Amino acid sequence: MNVIAIAMSAGALALAPSIIPPTPVPSAGRDEAATAISPGEIVAAAPASEWVAIAPEDMLVMTLAPAADGAVREVVIQLMPAPYGAGWVENIRTLARARWYDGIAVTRVQDNYVVQWGDPNAEDEAGAKPLPDGLRTMKEADYVVPFGQTRPRQRVVIMSDPYSDMAFYEAGWPLATKDGSAWPVHCYGMVGVGRGMSPDTGSGAELYTVIGHAPRHLDRNIAVVGRVIEGIEHLSSLPRGTGPLGFYEDPAQNVPIASIRIASDLPESERPRFEYLSTEGPTFDRYVEARTSRRDPFFITPARGIDVCNAPVPVRRVSER
Amino acid sequence: MNVIAIAMSAGALALAPSIIPPTPVPSAGRDEAATAISPGEIVAAAPASEWVAIAPEDMLVMTLAPAADGAVREVVIQLMPAPYGAGWVENIRTLARARWYDGIAVTRVQDNYVVQWGDPNAEDEAGAKPLPDGLRTMKEADYVVPFGQTRPRQRVVIMSDPYSDMAFYEAGWPLATKDGSAWPVHCYGMVGVGRGMSPDTGSGAELYTVIGHAPRHLDRNIAVVGRVIEGIEHLSSLPRGTGPLGFYEDPAQNVPIASIRIASDLPESERPRFEYLSTEGPTFDRYVEARTSRRDPFFITPARGIDVCNAPVPVRRVSER
Q: What gap in Å lies between CA B227 and CA B191, rounded to an integer?
């Protein structure tokens, strides 16, 4: 048993879209008694009280240059709350408010790894874009925080994590802990801060998101500062770079970024609204349990195991105002 | 310590491309004593004797319709050796030899999940492509094989796997075991057989590959029959489908597949040649150990842990004949 839940309660059930395996074809003689509702159905049944609004100052709206067919390509990123990634997140707000990101580009797309964006001329001293004042320099110790610094009322815990003593969720984020430290984990869609060989070289001017299997070896080695909550397909489906590390070889392949704005700096009518499912409520607990042992109709053999990146925290866009 | 190696020996070291984190920038004062060569460098130093040729009858060459710019898009898939996926692999050879796959299409691209291809008209009884004779019907029990049925001389074992008692590598493939059974695991790039709700519905006519975080909950629930060893970017960078489950809503979005051939059926001059790094040799053991605790210069804190999908078996194209 990999999941220990510290809170438990019931909830009404309803039908909803879910993450389902290939080829949904009518059933032919499966054991009905063995089946149950899917994780997506559990989430859809969560009461409104378990959905937590994401503050506009915690969201970035990244607008890529329009696609070849003119389509708008917008990516929404949720920034991590303090204490996780705090110094870097502040730098990112500083850079966004200085409009420093406007006109930079996606320069690297490495299959099963990362999409990265920054100043295409960063390594050319003469041509590099000057950084704004007020950026903090972070250090090695900032990649982790003391475990237990924040205390959610309840926690879903995943005991079997090859990369830590325990993975857990707190305030809507996947985290791991070992040796008294806690840190955010590199799951698909998480956003991190590119850096050079020295731990203090990542300012937040160069960011990446994970587009493949969780590169958990990066945990505690690079700052995780957020996650893509909408539009990751605009990044994950970009052509792969053919240069070393997946960098685009020809600058003409770079994908220009028109702007990156903090949602709270946008006119209110343009602000996206998102909510995440509380990781401290009973529904999240049931969701992780259901993902741990899938019993919805397609499944024959429930895994009875889960890894933290295979139980992503549900996030939804709120369309009505 | 997550890796137990049953064989160990030394090997010469050389420099080679590797899987390295973002932003390779000159070092600034890292502890040189703490650093070591990268997993990629270890692999590059493997003697020729540790590379195993992939038999031409175990490779599929899938040719997509040319890209908009006319570029050739070829994907090479390695099929699993018996006993894993055996019945399905035989069906796939039958379908390929009947040229049944020619003219089917990629119909589904779901972000962080799978790319799937098959007959676009499969669910239209009148329009569906008739299947060739001689296909075997597989059953639930075929999703696993008895553990220990094959006996490699040495094994690299990963003890910490949330989805099994133990993950291991055998004859070049990542596997897991529990309750006396063993099965291939759903890592990035693995190829599986789409099926309906009933376990016996997957013939091999509909296939998928993983393009996101390992969906290990599918292990033992769908047949894994191979892996993409070249050209996955032609699939993983396709536009995501906007219909339910990532299916393309408009048939015009489907990506036609010109042909799928067994490499041994191609003229010898057109056959691709590939090798995998023996998982029973000393280099693979050192490679997994190095990926478990990265000590190459970029890293501050070695993970001291690994998951089986984060240590993919190295495969290389052999260009000279």
A: 5
Q: Do A238 and B237 touch (CB under 8 A)?
A: yes
pTM of the model: 0.90
- ipTM (interface pTM): 0.89
**B113: which residues sit within 8 A by CB, 6+ positions away?**
A19, B210, B211, B212, B215, B246
Task: State the maximum Cα–Cα separation within chain B, in Å, rounded to a whole number.
Answer: 69
Min Cα distance A72 → chain B (Å) is 14
- Beta bridge mates, A115: A109, A209
Could you read off the pLDDT of A241-296 as tens digits, one per residue? 999 999 999 999 999 999 999 999 999 999 999 999 999 999 999 999 999 999 98
At residue A320, the pLDDT reads 61
Searching chain A, which residue's CA lies closest to the CA of residue B194? A22
- Two structure tokens written together for A302: 């429930």
Contact A208 B22 (CB under 8 A): yes
* Residue bearing tokens 């769908």: B222
CB neighbours (10 Å) of residue B267? 6
The rounded Cα B158 to chain-centroid distance in angstroms is: 18
Contact state of A214 with B310 under an 8 Å Cβ cutoff = yes
User: Residue B286's pLDDT is what?
Assistant: 95
Q: Where are the alpha helices (DSSP H) in chain A?
A: 39-44, 86-97, 233-236, 282-292
Choose the closest CB to B222 out of A21, A158, A188.
A21
> Which string of DSSP letters, residue by residue, matches A108-147?
EEETTTEEEEE-TTTT-TTTSPPPPTTPPPP-GGGG-EET
- Of A2, A23, A213, Cβ closest to residue B309: A213
* Residue A196 forms contact with B (CB below 8 Å): yes
